[in-house]
Design goal:
Blueprint (H helix, E strand, L loop, with lengths): L1 E3 L19 E2 L5 E2 L20 E2 L5 E2 L7 E4 L5 H5 L8 E14 L3 E5 L3 H7 L1 E5 L7 E2 L2 E7 L2 E6 L5 E14 L1 E5 L9 E4 L22 E2 L9 E4 L8 E6 L4 E7 L1
Parallel strand pairs: 1-11
Antiparallel strand pairs: 2-3, 4-5, 6-7, 7-13, 8-12, 8-14, 9-10, 9-13, 11-12, 15-17, 16-19, 18-19
């Protein structure tokens, strides 16, 4: 396992382009701004990330939603404290469980704690698959500690539905985020076999970061296809596709 004790740039290949549309940045305008206030042209935020996003330049979607978190012993308003983006309000507990109704390939967990190095040394990270009772140790591939923030990176063979932080003694946690990775499909080159409406359903609509738009092939197209070509090599952890049964596609490729 690799242990790094300083912050590194997870998106070190992000270059600046001042010709992007509002809300986008990067050398090819391929990164969407998720700052709460506004983005600099290089993606830096003038303040915190918008709710539901975290990490370097706010590029990681948080799937540890408030209604998925519980503690043992049970604590009232635990999710409010862990999801309030404040590091001065913390929870003390022996176990924190995050349970989802669906399964995820977890990539990154970020924890804010008063003493993150000690936190990591005493807490066990456990996982469950398929809503079963069997519990396994999570495979941790690396950690990054920076001030009071602990980033933990996982490598999973299959998606999980439960993540458990557990120790024999109570530990203090101030904030908690979990991510499946980053959507690398945004603004990539796409093609499709046919287009229903050139202006409204072109292939790029599937990867434009807007869930209200989608690509759509012609209904008479019996051998319809849609392809994406990335600008570099990626190890894909997950592909999320919304297909409405009417030749309409919206998709995410998570790396």
């Amino acid at each position: 396992m690799i242990i790094l004790m300083s912050m590194i740039a997870l998106l070190s290949n992000v270059l600046v382009s001042d010709g992007c549309d509002t809300g986008w940045f990067g050398s090819k305008c391929q990164y969407k701004c998720h700052c709460k206030i506004k983005c600099h042209i290089n993606g830096d935020c003038q303040g915190p990330c918008e709710k539901g996003w975290f990490g370097y330049k706010c590029q990681y979607r948080d799937v540890a939603l408030a209604d998925t978190i519980r503690t043992d012993p049970p604590l009232e308003y635990v999710a409010d404290f862990l999801k309030d983006d404040r590091n001065d309000l913390c929870v003390t507990s022996g176990t924190i469980t995050i349970q989802w109704s669906r399964s995820y390939f977890i990539f990154l967990t970020r924890i804010v704690a008063p003493k993150p190095a000690i936190f990591y040394s005493v807490v066990r990270f456990l996982i469950k698959y398929n809503h079963s009772a069997n519990v396994e140790e999570a495979n941790i591939t690396g950690i990054i500690i920076h001030q009071n923030t602990l980033d933990i990176y996982f490598s999973l063979n299959q998606p999980i539905d439960t993540l458990i932080l557990q120790t024999d003694t109570a530990f203090m946690t101030c904030s908690l985020w979990v991510s499946t990775g980053r959507n690398v499909a945004l603004k990539q080159n796409t093609e499709q076999s046919s287009t229903d409406d050139v202006s409204l359903s072109e292939p790029g609509k599937a990867v434009d970061g807007d869930k209200t738009t989608c690509s759509r092939t012609n209904k008479q197209d019996e051998r319809s296809f849609w392809t994406i070509t990335f600008d570099q090599f990626y190890f894909l952890r997950n592909v999320q596709t919304i297909f409405d049964g009417n030749h309409c596609l919206e998709t995410s490729f998570i790396a």
